[in-house]
Structures are given as structure tokens and as C-alpha cells.
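Inputs:
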Amino acid sequence: MPEMPEVETIRRTLIDKVSGRRIEEVEFLLSRLVKWPSAGEFQAVLTSKTIVNLTRRGKYLLFHLNDQHIMVVHLRMTGRLSYALPGMEMDRFTRIIFKLDNGDRLIYADTRTLGTLYLLAPDELWRISGLANMGPEPLSEEFSLSYFTDMLKKRQGNIKAVLLNQKYIGGLGNIYVDESMAIAGIHPERIASSLTNSEIEQLFYAINKVIEDGIVHGGTTFRDYRDGSGRSGSHQHHLAVYGRKAAPCFTCGTPIVWKSVAGRGTHFCPDCQK
DNA sequence: ACAGGAACCTGATAGC
DNA sequence: TGCTATCAGGTTCCTG
């Protein structure tokens, strides 16, 4: 579910609360979400460790611990991380509970249970291929117009598939990809290498703008997404095409088309996007 | 390299 | 009301 703006919002709403907190106990309601090491070892190593920092790379959250280990969390489609005070009602889909030294809890909840957790030593990040092989992120220095241009010129797949591929750009997902293409006026089935320099520049601007706005608005809440304090985002009120199947395009009034592209539900204006 | 589909899961909703 | 089909902010693996 969450894309870079949502994961970044979760990071920002959690960092001050969890930093400096010692994990006293890890309680599993569903231990199979831990992919490395074994659930037992994950629990044993994590217990009594202190969280010293919380960072993000693409859609991954990295909890840095005082012994240099890193707990890596990927929320996939419906994962949620939230900070809970004593007496707060438990999320119905709570899967893992981290009990903290001040009596509060960090809750991992996940409806579809597709999320993944890892506990790694600093030199073990290669174990997560999606993290190790991730491309540059929007809004970063590495994600430059020249990188973007050179990369697209080499790709023969459709632009939608390329933008979703985390090894080329880290952090984009289905919503923000559709929005970026809408803003740039690019049809999702265009072959990436066929884009002109002018189109590439517009798309580059659109991607950065859409991600920046998404962060400013605290993410997009369609159904499951909540930030670290349990609050919804508001970027859903600023979407041009995503979730607007058959509704009139804000620019030309033509009904927004829904079609499966690159294996994902894709929204676009057939008139504005060429 | 790339496309398409399946798999991993559970739940909400639309349609009949 | 109730049953069925479809879809869902992701990623990976397999086949062609």
C-alpha cells in the first residue's frame, strides 16, 4: 500500500517517539512475517536493544539499534506501524507488538499479511535484494534529469512498468506513477525510450512534484493507510486520475479510463495523455 | 529484456 | 439478503 510519501510520513511521525526507547519484549501474533533470521532469533536479538534512529530507503523503514543491528520493515500492501499508549484500542489486524521501556507499544498491523520484517547486521543489507538493488529516489541528488534521461533511453518496456520498477527509481508506486504521467501528459503504454527530451523533462518535474506534494499532505489514504499516530493523509483530495475511473478529466472533461497496464490497475485521460 | 500471469493473503464492494 | 466476481498504495518468481 504505502509508497514513498506514506512511508516517509510514518517515519516522521514515529522517529521522536521511538528514538531512545528500549524494546523490552517482542510479541508475535503472526511470526511468519519475519523473513530473516528465524522468528525466535529475531525476538532474542531485538529484546533489550535500544532504537537509536529511524531512517527510510524507498518504501523500506530502517530501525537502527544500539548494537548496530537494523530492523527493516516493508509494509507491502496493507502494513501499518503505529505508536500506542496504554489503554488504546488494539488494531483488529495487529500481528506483532513491540513493548517499550516506557510502557508504550509499537504496533505492527497488517490486514493482508503480505508485509515483511528483517533483522540484519550492518553488512547484511544484501540479504534484501529489493533494498540492495534500489535505484535513486525522487527529490534526491542522485535522481537527476541526466540519470533519468539516460535510464529511459535504454528501456524498451512501457513507461508505467519502468517507473514502477524499484531498481530504476526507488519509492514510486501505483498511485504516484499514474499521477506523474497524468501531470506530464504521457500515456502509460508509451515505450520509455520513445519519450522526447521535452517529455522526459516534464515527467521528471511531475514525479518530483507529486512526491513532494504527497509528503506535504501526509500521504494518500484510500483505505488502509494511516501514519504513525493513526491519522489519515489528505493527498487523496489532490489526485488527478487515480481512483477516478469514468469521472471527468479536470482539464478536458473526457472520462478517465481504467485499464490494466504492467499488471496494475492504471488510470489516465485518453485525451490529455499521448 | 520484456510481457503476462500466478503467488503470497484478507477484506471491501459492486453486481446480480 | 446472499452469493460471486473483482479489485486492492507491492514484490518476486516462472514461463514464453
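DSSP finds seven helices and eleven strands in chain A. Flag for discussion at group meeting.
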